[in-house]
Input
Amino acid sequence: MRRHRSAKIVATLGPASGSPDMIRALFLAGADVFRLNFSHGAHDDHARRIQHIRAIEKELGRPIAILMDLQGPKLRIGDIAGGGTDLATGGRFRLDLDGADGDATRAPLPHPEIFAALAEGTNVLLDDGKIRLRVTSCGAEFAETTVVVGGRLSNHKGVNLPNVVLPISPIGQKDRDDLRFGLDHGVDWVGLSFVQRPEDVAEARRLIAGRASVLSKLEKPAAIDRLDEIIQFSDAIMVARGDLGVELPAEDVPSLQKEIIRHCRIAGKPVIVATQMLESMIQSPMPTRAEASDVATAVYDGADAVMLSAETAAGKYPREAVEMMNRIVTRVERDPAYRTIRDADHPNPEATAPDAITAAARQVAQTIRAAAIVTFTTSGSTSLRAARERPDVPILCLTESLATARKLAVAWGVHCVLAQDVQDFADMVDKACLVAKREEFAGNGQRLVITAGVPFGTPGATNILRIAWVGG
Output
């Protein structure tokens, strides 16, 4: 079950992909992580999918990560009389807390926290930015606006406020109920929506209490202002380009994507690029050339993983979408230019023994043309530091923790195998060579670069590097 690529693939499960046979087919096609979108589906649906994933994991003997994606706050207008109305550009329009049905002059907006954050000149976007309003005056219960871009406004359309930090928690009551369910069912990652500040991530970490890793979704421009702090508090980051593209000009998103990836690389945190990657494959068995280039760009930029959303959750061709993404990623990584870009983009190691060892492991592996770098890890930190270096050989991670192996399914280049912790140096070399041969990473006469921590089994204590020959 070895993947012959380094970047990972996240596939979202849904009505089109919830059966055991389809989940198995998606994994075999290349999915490394399965995403459960808690904006949709009942707990019973998600429980069945988790059960199917774990059964397939046991059958195939490969760790599979499960990412639960919390819905987060949903800011929407209320009802409009007749189901909808037309707003004319240049007209006046009022938003308020009055629960009466709206019309061509006003709409209910049942979110007092929004009015608390508004100021004159604030832009208010409705329906994914299709309608744009500008606040001319406001109070605790209303906002008078000018319609900058008009259009058809119907019931319950979403509201976005670019560059406004809202006094609202990213984890509402529904999210708390979903989180409790997900943690009780053993999810590996929790995707946190509506992150605006590092305090939002800290709140999630308190609730999760170490039972899963935290993935912060960057979908609010306010989060970019405190990017490094949010990365520091998070275990991984997702570039949620769909929501970013609503609140930011479309032309800003590509460069912002590169900036986020660069900052995550420096911090050694996995980063996923998501949204509309192969969007046309919801209806078509083939993507557009632009979509193929989009996936390739994320891989060239150094993303740890690329994600499929509706393509696999609700599309007509879920397996084909994963197969296509797998082919694109594999092709990019075989391009000599890919390695040139990666070699020119190594973050400087931090002044610690683990960073010094992992940086040296990459260099030694390249110099001696090793078949793989083998990392022994308990918490996963050793393997994540190795992935940060983006070596030109695979990273074979040996761990006795199934939770760690599952968590690392999202990390670039890391292939995890469950193995008992080693007792001494001879045991370490023997296990590394045995597993490398069994998993088809190395053959007789090839060399391995091995990193581990002494005392063995101590989390985060990477302090040794060994070169080993694989014998017959």
User: Anything to note?
Assistant: The chain has three domains: 8-72+170-332, 81-160, 353-469. The longest helix spans residues 43-60.
